């Protein structure tokens, strides 16, 4: 079965215990647009919030499931340990550092990784995030920041950058990335932890900031205990539904346990876990977020896929009100 290469990151889905504070941080501090306020399709009693560029272009979505009773995260291995967000330039990182100081956001100093300037920071729940400069990017194009964002366009977040996977045995995950998903090894850089192997960089499609996975082997860590501030899964871009069915056949032929085809309405998906237990999703680029809301009012109201509309009253009754309309 011949499949087209994956096109890079599609979205990253994480966990929050407080949808209201989450909304305020990601829209008012980070300047992302809430492009969809919906529910977790596997548990409609909780919100699923999608933050992205102006219209939720593939590769720009950082999403959150609200789990109000989610406990503290105890970081460790078998995890997606960092999510990066692309900004236009090295100068943008200085802008963001000053903004983080203004808003009391915990952050590190600006540093360099694989030839790119980066700035690591955390949200109010300890979500591990990294801003990465696109100044020298030669790969997948970034998205388009929303014109109503509080962030100046020249410094606005353009989408997802590399994700870091932290595992106890890198070889097993590497085999899935290369032999199953078609990534290629691009390079490496030293671990910040003494005595640990170099972090290996893998890329797919056009490569560049929006199409990399950084694989970190850590033999000194226990498995992560996930909660608020942790990442649930990472999704990679598939061009079309036709291509997704080919990927399903590939995964089935390799006898990898998987979800089969999953209808998410805004995209179509396939889920499976790699040997270290990290959840991967393959998701189609379309149809996108404007099938049930116009561009101008994306994210302002509770959107439900058609197959949940007959349950709207019941679903809304279980959700705490969340005002996401612009003033």
From TrEMBL:
Gene3D superfamilies: 2,3-Dihydroxybiphenyl 1,2-Dioxygenase, domain 1
Positions of the VOC domain: 8-134, 159-285
Organism superkingdom: Bacteria
InterPro entries named among the record's database cross-references: Extradiol_RC_dioxygenase (IPR052537), Glyas_Bleomycin-R_OHBP_Dase (IPR029068), Glyas_Fos-R_dOase_dom (IPR004360), VOC_core (IPR037523)
CDD domains: PcpA_C_like
Full protein name: Glyoxalase family protein
Species per Swiss-Prot/TrEMBL record: Caldalkalibacillus horti
